Amino acid sequence: MIRTATTRAEALRARRRSWTMTAAIRSGALYGTLLVGTVVMLIPFVYMVGTSFLPNAYVLPMPPVLIPTHPTFDNYIAAWNTNQFGRAFLNSLEIAVASTAIGVGLSSALAFAFARYRFPGRNILFFGMLATLMVPSIVLIIPQFVLASHLHLVNSKLGLILVYAATNGTAFSVYLLRNAFAQLPQELLDAAAIDGCGVWRTFARIALPLVRPALSAAVIFAFLGNWDEFTWAYTSLNDPKLFTLPIAIEQYQVDNQTQWGIVFAACTIAVIPVIVVFLIFQRHFIQGISAGAIKG
Amino acid sequence: MPRRAAKAFFRLAPIYLLVLPGLVLFLTWTLYPLVDAFIMSFFQWNPNPSGTSTFLGADNYGEALHDPIFWQAFGNVVWYTLGTVPAQMALGLGVAIMLNRKLAARGVFRVLFYLPVITSWVVVSFAFEFLFNSQGGLVDWFLGDVLHVTSDTQPWLGDLNLALPTLMIMGIWKGIGWNMVIFLAALQTVPREIYEAAAVDGAGALSQFRRITLPWLRPTIVFVSVILVIGAFGVFIPMFIMTGGGPEHATETLVTYGYTNAFSSGDFGYGAAVTYLFAAFVAVFAGIQLWLQWRKGDIS
Q1: Measured between CB atoms, does B266 come within 8 Å of chain A?
Q2: All domains of chain B in start order, with CATH
């Protein structure tokens, strides 16, 4: 009796051991695959940042260097001082902040009206805006350029700000915020109306603070889109004093094909704010994309 | 009756005022340009407002449809779409499934896979141009000196046959993270009990994936594929920056072709016609995709 009991216990233990073994192999394979994937994702960045810290040379080191042994900041100093990078950085910041504020501000007003009020034209306007998500933005570039030149908005910061505010992620923000506003309880808005709040005050004082998560997601999307935008800025700007970072980098690369160290120092300077914003807000960001996709 | 109208006016006026600024801005820069481009596409269009434009009827469209470069660009875009969309969906889904379990450092993996998505196309383009450069680039070194599968450096972006595939690799690399996030969100809506019940019935991991996960994800797959096809058809910045559509139009896309016609050759009407044809292709394709799925009952 006792003997069979111990053998059974042993058998059980052995089975459990082999089970934990396969589990260990499995999770090992899982982490292994994920690590390989991560390396592939990161190598272009590491190579870029590593090169930006190499002494600028016309001949690339062989074998390639990912992490320099004697890092130097020379490329960063050179990038910041030449080609007006400092100014491009400030231009980008100014334009991205202004266009994000205007774009998200106006989108949230639209979204609130679409979500909470019935008025003639509501549905056609809302679905019309959504339909423009299907229109590739590049189709608009040629006529936008023509319109901007009529309005004297070519080669101007204001032109960039207005076009970004109007088109860069605006329809998506309206969609995202409309969903958020629609989920607010009606009693809250009724109570505000009884207290004498008009449409505008209900929107600004009551509703807007309550959709903060969706609002942050919209702000981050819009900001990153505006910060990175290339095509419209490239098309409409020709004064180097007005260049934003993506254009300044592109021009710099065209002018100095082989000086990869300086080009990548500039690229790194441009990417850092994006990564910082993303890391701070990544939760909102990922929720925002998911909400847009799942409900869509 | 007038009192009623006045009442409706006072009720609706603040709402319209709320909507108006955003709407005006949006319509000015999207609807108006959309109509304007359509009109332009029927003219030998003069960008100078005081100059005269000549009405051509559908000549720009006819010219495009008989233009071998237009069709080459169309073919490139189709290849680019076929080469990038399924691959990034499969890889993104794979990563999402791996990250959909309790895992140490899950958040870190998610962030790292997402980094390429938030990085601007300009920066990514330069990083890949450098990776694939033939004067000591990392890829040549890895294939030649580490794996020994190539004996010589490759011209990658300068090669007629290699340029487009190189750009595809970059497109896949940049897109995986976005797919991962969307699929991860969808996977989290699958009720655990279904998997548990299937496991009790003896379903293995593979059949769970085929019988439960995939059907559950189908609406998401439709959504993702439509968005990605539109994106892939409209690919522009990497070609514009890295190859300029070359060599010999091997990486020309409909958008780079329309863009250069308008802004380099000054033929705005022809450029508008090309982009309109491109938009039509996109609309037809997305429409077919949505219709097929609607018929299957995946979307309502």
Answers
A1: no
A2: 2-40 (no CATH), 68-296 (1.10.3720.10)
B-chain residues within 8 Å CB-CB of A38? Answer: 109, 112-113
What is the per-residue DSSP string for B126-183? Answer: HHHHHHT-TTT-HHHHIIIIIS---SS---GGGSTTTHHHHHHHHHHHHHHHHHHHHH
Most confident of A87-101, A257-271, B152-166, B286-300: A87-101
Given a contact cutoff of 8 angstroms between Cβ atoms, the answer to whether B99 and B145 are in contact is: no
**Closest Cα in chain B to A62:** B136
Nearest to B184 by CA among B294, B109, B296: B109
How far apart, in Å, are the Cα atoms of A100 and each of A89, A96, B139? 16, 6, 38
Q: How far is A39 from chain B (nearest CA, A)?
A: 9
**pLDDT per residue as tens digits for the range B43-97:** 877 776 666 777 777 788 888 888 889 899 999 999 999 999 999 999 999 999 9
Name B14's Cβ contacts closer than 8 Å, sequence gap at least 6.
A198, A199, A200
Provide the terminal-to-terminal Cα distance of chain B, rounded to the nearest Å.
41
Q: Using 50, 70 and 90 to split pLDDT, how confident is the model at B299? A: low
Give me B12's structure tokens: 């609706």
Residue with tokens 């797919």: B179
| pTM of the entire predicted model | 0.85
ipTM: 0.84
Task: Please judge whether A142 and B272 are an interchain contact, meaning their C-beta atoms are less than 8 angstroms apart.
Answer: yes
* A230 to B121: CB separation less than 8 angstroms, yes or no: yes
CA A53 to chain centre: 26
Of A63, A142, A162, the CB nearest to B262: A142
The CATH T-level fold of domain A83-295 is: MetI-like fold (1.10.3720)
Residue B55: φ, ψ to 5°: -75, 130
Q: Where are the domains of chain A?
A: 1-43, 83-295
Asked if A60's CB is within 8 angstroms of B136's CB, the reply is: yes
Query: If we measure between CA atoms, which residue out of A76, A83, A116 comes closest to residue A261?
Result: A76
Tokens of residue A128, six digits:
């019309």
DSSP H or E run through B109: helix B106-118
> In this complex, how many residue pairs, one in chain A and one in chain B, have their CB atoms less than 8 Å apart?
253
B98 CB neighbours in chain A (<8 A) are: 30, 33-34
Q: Is B216 on the interface with A (CB under 8 A)?
A: no
* Chain B residues touching A231 at Cβ < 8 A: 236-237
By CA distance, what is A166's nearest residue in B?
A: B26
B121 in A contact zone (CB under 8 Å)? yes
Quote the mean pLDDT of chain B: 85
Amino acid identity of residue A127, one-letter, is F
Q: What is the pLDDT of residues A97-154, one digit of tens each?
A: 999 999 999 999 999 999 988 888 888 999 888 888 777 777 888 889 989 988 999 9
Residues of B in contact with A48 (CB under 8 A): 123, 126-127, 130
What confidence tens digit (pLDDT) does each residue in B257-279 have? Answer: 888 888 888 788 888 888 888 88
- In A, minimum Cα distance to B184 occurs at A290
Q: Do A286 and B181 touch (CB under 8 A)?
A: yes
